[in-house]
Structure to design on (684 residues):
């Protein structure tokens, strides 16, 4: 995008101020190179500014100010999520790996290492993934915070998946410091035919910048279910960068509850024929301090691929939801099946939903549909429920869950889906009746 | 049981008077029928009684067993024992029929200070009742009324009525869109609920429903008023001669 020189100057000043006291972490040569390249990208692009095309609906100020704004810790009496799901648990407290709280990194079909260790190794496969998909993701739309992440991340998991894993890897993010400013970067490489499920839960930090790069080889399957919850004052910018091989599958679902600012970016490249990519999100926001943004970019660059975006947001008491989703179908990506739906349910007039759905299609034999709607509770449905004796508050909850159902259906595993539903029910139950 | 006195209703948004002084009393155990031309206010009466928004009561009253209905929320009226079988049952995507009904049954029980029905007990009861209405397990699982045929929707209304066991049942054109077999099924469902403590107000255009659900009293409604009241023979008269004679006679 063309930027005026004045704007560029402002951005550069903000960027240099931000970078002034930050030194790149040191590691093996390849890691140093990747970080230096990433830093150069940050400098070139400049940190995001409210005038940038994809930051018009979401103010980036608190993400680029020097220190993380304080975020109070939030407690409720919820039990652990997915208590009955057997998983390999890896715990990060305010972005710092907690070995004592984590399981041993042993699971048949995959190998897990810490980025902190990997970045010190002279030879490692992560060299070909770390920052690589992020860089590709910069092609069409600038994502300076993701480059910033690549430059400064020191921790995260690096997972090599060679078989079909029996249980999920569960990244648990705890938030214990009110001022934590955390960066995590995960790299996952699935070899041909490999399969894994990644879970992510927790508020993570006062300010959290997280990247996830996933290379999905031919016929491999990657499942991802994430819950960003609880703490009202937390801020997060997250990026998923993935590239899909022939007949592979990528399915990602995110539940977002609370949070003063959450920006979830997802950049998907379908590069092998007959691949499938589904990305879905459900979000519930209460209050004018809730702001949630899904920014998705899916590139079809192979034949007969399917992509599906399903985003649903329930907003009340002045909450704001943003959706920016694009499907790009390249010239040779014939037989593309692209679907995108983004919908919001506004429970009052103060809440707002801002949507920017985009289609850019260069192939001629494709089916692509997109739709974006903003609506209130259906009055006829409400009266029908009430006329059967269901009180208004309970009827609203039923209709809210019904509205979110299409997004939740994207979760393949029933037990995981039930956990998500329980969290939503808990959230609704905690709202004033 | 149901006592409506001089009820005047206008649209909230428009200056349009729809009910212009309705008087009607349904005694326990009795079936009253309301017939009348399209647009005479029959559905409006049923909506106002059950608490739908968009209407403004400008005069009169309505009570159920002495309790003033018009002051209550819709759900309170339901818990008090009022039930409306909708002329156009509403589709609710994403809410399972079974979940919907169990929520409704237990919400009413809770409101009345009764114990909630357990999942097991509920399942047993609903299965038995669904069977007599030829509603299969598949239909119970589907979202409320979504993808139901016209007849299935009406049977679903009667199933809800059977589960909720209201004191006072209002049926708004439950016969519309039904073929002969479905009409029989629905009527049998209604008749099975008839007992001396329960009142019915059956809104219909046609005598044929009243062949199955025999009314004790028949009212003719026109232009927002009950203009004539009689026995079952009044329905036959409408069937044979239409409304013209009756309307001319009372004009
Ligand atoms: N919500 C509404 N908005 C506008 N007009 C209405 C509304 N409800 C009822 N009416 C009008 O009130 C009159 C009575 O309608 P209704 O009660 O449906 O009659 P019936 O059921 O006897 O056919 C009609 O003229 C109808 O158009
Ligand atoms: Mg009508």
């Amino acid at each position: 995008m063309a930027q005026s020189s004045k704007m560029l100057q402002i951005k550069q000043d903000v960027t240099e101020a931000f970078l002034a006291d930050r030194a790149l972490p040191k590691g093996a040569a390849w890691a140093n190179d990747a970080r230096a390249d990433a830093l150069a990208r940050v400098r070139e692009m400049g940190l995001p500014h409210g005038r940038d095309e994809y930051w018009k609906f979401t103010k980036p100020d608190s993400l680029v100010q020097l220190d993380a704004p304080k975020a109070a810790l939030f407690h409720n009496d919820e039990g652990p999520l997915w208590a009955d799901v057997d998983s390999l648990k890896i715990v990060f407290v305010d972005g710092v790996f907690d070995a004592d709280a984590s399981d041993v990194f042993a699971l048949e079909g995959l190998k897990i290492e810490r980025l902190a260790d990997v970045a010190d190794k002279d030879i490692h496969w992560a060299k070909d993934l770390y920052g690589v998909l992020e860089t590709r993701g910069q092609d069409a739309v600038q994502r300076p915070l993701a480059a910033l992440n690549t430059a400064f991340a020191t921790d995260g998991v690096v997972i090599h998946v060679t078989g079909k894993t029996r249980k999920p890897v569960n990244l648990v993010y705890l938030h214990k410091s009110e001022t934590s400013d955390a960066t995590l970067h995960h790299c996952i490489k699935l070899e041909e035919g490999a399969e894994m499920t990644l879970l992510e839960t927790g508020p993570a930090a006062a300010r959290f910048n997280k990247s996830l790069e996933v290379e999905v080889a031919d016929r491999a399957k990657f499942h991802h279910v994430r819950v960003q919850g609880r703490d009202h004052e937390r801020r997060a910018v997250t990026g998923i960068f993935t590239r899909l091989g022939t007949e592979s599958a990528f399915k990602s679902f995110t539940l977002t509850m609370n949070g003063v600012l959450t920006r979830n970016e997802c950049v998907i490249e379908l590069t092998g024929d007959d691949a499938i990519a589904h990305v879905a999100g459900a979000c519930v926001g209460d209050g004018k301090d809730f702001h949630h943004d899904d920014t998705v970019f899916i590139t079809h660059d192979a034949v007969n691929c399917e992509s599906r975006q399903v985003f649903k947001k329930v907003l009340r008491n002045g909450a704001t939801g943003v959706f920016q989703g694009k499907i790009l179908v390249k010239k040779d990506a014939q037989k593309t099946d692209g679907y995108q739906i983004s919908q919001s349910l506004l429970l009052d007039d103060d809440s707002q939903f801002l949507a920017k759905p985009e289609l850019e299609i260069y192939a001629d034999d494709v089916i692509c549909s997109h739709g974006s709607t903003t609506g209130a509770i259906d009055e006829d449905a409400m009266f029908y429920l009430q006329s059967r004796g269901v009180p208004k508050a309970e009827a609203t909850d039923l209709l809210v869950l019904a509205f979110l159902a299409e997004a939740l259906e994207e979760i393949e595993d029933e037990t995981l889906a039930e956990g998500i539903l329980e969290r939503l029910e808990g959230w609704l139950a905690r709202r004033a009746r | 049981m149901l006592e409506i006195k001089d009820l005047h209703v206008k649209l909230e948004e428009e200056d349009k008077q729809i009910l212009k002084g309705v008087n009607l009393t349904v005694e326990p155990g009795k079936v009253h029928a309301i017939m009348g031309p399209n647009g005479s206010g029959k559905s409006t009466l049923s909506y106002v009684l059950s608490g739908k928004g968009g209407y403004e009561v400008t005069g009169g009253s309505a009570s159920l067993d002495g309790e003033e209905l018009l002051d209550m929320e819709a759900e309170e009226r339901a818990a008090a024992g009022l039930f409306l079988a909708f002329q156009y049952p509403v589709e609710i995507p994403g809410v399972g029929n079974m979940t919907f009904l169990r929520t409704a049954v237990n919400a009413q029980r809770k409101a009345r200070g009764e114990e909630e029905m357990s999942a097991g007990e509920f399942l047993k009861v609903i299965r038995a009742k669904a069977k007599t209405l030829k509603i299969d397990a598949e239909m119970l699982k589907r979202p409320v009324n979504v993808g139901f045929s016209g007849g299935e929707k009406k049977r679903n209304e009667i199933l809800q009525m059977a589960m909720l066991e209201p004191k006072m049942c209002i049926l708004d054109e439950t016969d519309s869109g039904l073929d002969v077999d479905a009409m029989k099924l629905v009527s049998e469902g209604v008749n099975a609920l008839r007992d001396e403590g329960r009142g019915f107000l059956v809104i219909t255009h046609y005598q044929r429903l009243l062949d199955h659900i025999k009314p004790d009293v028949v009212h003719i409604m026109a232009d927002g008023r009950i203009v004539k009241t009689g026995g079952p023979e009044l329905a036959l008269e409408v069937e044979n001669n239409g409304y013209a004679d009756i309307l001319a006679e009372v004009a």
